[in-house]
Design goal:
Elements: E1 2-4, H1 11-20, H2 28-47, E2 52-58, E3 63-69, E4 74-79, H3 83-92, E5 97-107, E6 113-121, E7 129-133, E8 136-137, H4 141-150, E9 158-167, H5 168-177, E10 182-189, E11 191-192, E12 198-199, H6 205-210
Parallel strand pairs: 1-10, 4-5, 4-7, 7-9, 8-9, 9-10
Antiparallel strand pairs: 2-3, 5-6, 11-12
Length: 216
């Protein structure tokens, strides 16, 4: 299932518009905060479908039966670009366990690239809800490879992908390779360049959030 969070208007649409604006992008703190906000909205929407249980809570005046999460999810992100949207998820699921994966495009001289993964820090995932964030879902290659890599830590009961901007090409690739994933998108664009960049997109989310890097 694919959920486009900006299909119907909400304040999220304003935040996505600011993420795309090449003038407002000069303010890195604002850019990071808007990615956080996308994560917060996605976390709220995901929470509506998670298993819960009823628990008796002692108040100063009596006992209240409340609904609470049955178990905490695992929040995973791809370094470094995923950190702000991951923080937004963590702002909501503030008791969650966390996982971090280093994945990047290793470019070749002919302009093509392959996905390189060289670091993982992850709790046991067996039968747990996994929420994986990355601000851009372009080709989908890094997300699919990350999910496959994470299976060495256990098979999750649910997998949710949270992204600010997704491309239809990448969405179809993920759905083909990992059909049980649920994809939550701040917005969906249709065009992908030959070099794997989303158009109109928003540019390089990692560079805009944290500064330009030396190209690998």
């Amino acid at each position: 299932m694919v959920i486009n969070l900006s299909r119907d208007y909400s304040i999220l649409c304003d935040w996505v518009a600011e993420l795309r604006d090449d003038t407002l992008q000069q303010d890195r703190m604002r850019f990071r905060r808007n990615l956080e906000r996308v994560g917060e909205i996605a976390a709220y929407e995901i929470s509506r479908g998670l298993p819960f249980e009823e628990k008796e809570i002692q108040t100063p005046l009596g006992i209240c039966t409340s609904r609470v999460l049955e178990s905490q999810p695992v929040l995973a992100t791809i370094l470094r670009a995923g950190i702000p949207i991951h923080q937004g998820l963590l702002n909501v699921f503030d008791k969650a366990d966390n996982a971090f994966i280093a994945a990047y495009r290793k470019h070749k001289h002919d302009g093509s690239f392959e996905i390189s993964l060289n670091y993982i820090s992850c709790p046991d995932l067996e039968n747990r809800v996994l929420i994986l964030s990355d601000p851009m879902l372009a080709t989908g290659s890094s997300l699919v490879k990350t999910i496959q890599y994470l299976r060495s830590e256990g098979r999750a009961s649910q997998i949710h992908i949270v992204t600010a901007i997704a491309c239809t090409v990448g969405i179809e690739y993920v759905r083909r390779e990992e059909p049980n994933c649920k994809i939550w998108c701040g917005a969906i664009d249709d065009e992908l360049t030959a070099k794997g960049y989303i158009v109109p997109g928003l540019g390089d989310a990692g560079d805009l959030a944290f500064g330009h890097k030396t190209q690998m």
